[in-house]
User: Which sequence fits this backbone?
């Protein structure tokens, strides 16, 4: 875990893709994607933050593929370490950077657009729940792919497809009806609904709690699948 934390800290890519890119898109396209049904000033900042918070899919996957790059995977396979313990060690640094990104974009939205939030505590709870979703999905995708190139291709398709259908880019109410229905199976849909309620809605814990409960449920399913399908003896191709 310490090694992965140092690598993330020293790398520039997470800063660019999780902070600079969504900030740029929010600034350039803010007015276009903040209006319409379900929109509000600053919605695009939160939306692009949610969208790019799922870059953690890529970071957790690369942390796992790094075992093959550094030739340490044989040690994991030989000693048969606890799967949950090994995966949690990989998970924590990535979850932390995802959580910091979500909180930063929530704060930026409140400050820039002078929005008095209905509940700051709710924003934190939503961010914590959502921060686990991307890395857990990343482990599942890692388990399902055999090479780093395939994993990254699937990651970017997943990032944009789930984010678009889930209303992280344009408000759900402005999307085609079929896409709206598809969006309900993404965590983005429930996160955006929860963030909206905590920022400009009635601020009800019941409403936000139901949205967060769906995200937590998705996390539990992803965690179960991730642990079940992970096999340290499964050899991967880090460069092909």
Assistant:
């Amino acid at each position: 875990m310490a090694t992965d934390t140092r690598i993330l800290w020293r790398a520039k890519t997470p800063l660019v893709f999780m902070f600079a890119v969504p900030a740029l898109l929010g600034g350039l396209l803010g007015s276009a994607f903040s209006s319409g049904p379900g929109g509000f000033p600053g919605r695009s900042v939160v939306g692009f933050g949610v969208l790019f918070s799922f870059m953690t899919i890529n970071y957790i996957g690369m942390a796992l593929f790094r075992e093959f790059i550094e030739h340490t995977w044989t040690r994991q396979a030989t000693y048969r370490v606890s799967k949950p313990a090994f995966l949690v060690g990989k998970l924590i640094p990535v979850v932390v950077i995802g959580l910091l990104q979500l909180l930063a974009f929530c704060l930026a939205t409140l400050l820039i657009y002078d929005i008095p939030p209905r509940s700051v505590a709710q924003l934190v709870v939503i961010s914590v729940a959502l921060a686990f979703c991307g890395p857990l999905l990343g482990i599942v995708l890692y388990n399902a792919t055999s090479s780093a190139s395939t994993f990254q291709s699937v990651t970017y398709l997943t990032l944009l497809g789930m984010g678009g259908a889930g209303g992280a880019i344009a408000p759900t109410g402005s999307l085609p009806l079929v896409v709206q229905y598809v969006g309900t199976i993404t965590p983005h849909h429930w996160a955006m609904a929860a963030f909206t309620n905590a920022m400009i809605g009635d601020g009800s814990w019941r409403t936000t709690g139901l949205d967060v409960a769906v995200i937590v449920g998705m996390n539990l399913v992803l965690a179960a699948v991730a642990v079940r399908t992970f096999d340290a003896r499964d050899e991967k191709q880090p460069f092909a």
